[in-house]
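[audit] Reproducing an earlier prediction to check determinism. Same input, same settings, fresh worker. If the tokens differ from the archived copy the diff job will pick it up downstream; this log only records the rerun itself.
[audit] input (279 residues):
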Amino acid sequence: MIRNPWTPMLLGLAVEVIAFVTLLFLPETLPGGYTNASILPTPSTSGSSQAITSTSAAIPSGHHSPSPAQRSLEFLGRAHSSLAFLVSDSCILLIVSAFIVHMLFLNRNVMLQYISTQYAVSIAQATVLISIRSGLVFLLCIIILPVISLSVRGRLGAKRADLVLSQVSAALLALGFLGVGLAPNLPVLVTGLLTNALGWGLFPFLRSLSTGLVEPHHVARLNSCIGVFDTAGLMVGSPLLAALFTKGIEVGGVWFGLPFLVCAAVVTVLGLILARVRV
């Protein structure tokens, strides 16, 4: 980046292309025995029942289309039926609602500006520091977390293990954000970044925990709800962090790292909520 800003951008684009090509080699995950024939009428259906079905399916003469109010009520009824599983268990609702703060922690732009401004380093040098955290997160996801998860699951069971690992991850994430927000120099900042990276398994563990708490036919709806909360968090989180960064610069002093102090407080509250979850 110091020599030529186009080099990292083109390298990043090449890595993205490799990722998309990899998708072509993913195997099909639908059950092999599934066919459209499974929804056809069975041969044992009697003629009388077929006649009844045909009659019931016919649209009666003089039939009127539903009014807008009726369509609205019908839509609300379907929405309530689809989301009933979400509000039926307070644990599921608490876990899913936690994803609204997920995107709050993925904004690298504020982190780059904070490091560059606070410690008087270039954007290129700040990028290197953040890349150290990214490298640890990479190792965490492909090696460390799977090994720890398998070990803890063998002792506590799947749901209990996901809950405990979520609580530990929340504590590390909050401690890391606190260290980043209060770091007086670069060595302490790097320590905070590394501690923060160790907690990045929080949301994968929460997703796994919530999936284990719902019935299999609700998993798709659950992930759709998580996606909605993620998107809402992104819409709110990005401008919020930018505003906090601006306010931190105006106030100065210990409040210079205000965005990360707020993130630490948010994760602390999330950890306290997880402490009340029972599986």
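[audit] rerun output stored. Observation attached for the diff report: Confidence is low (pLDDT under 50) at residues 33-59.
[audit] end
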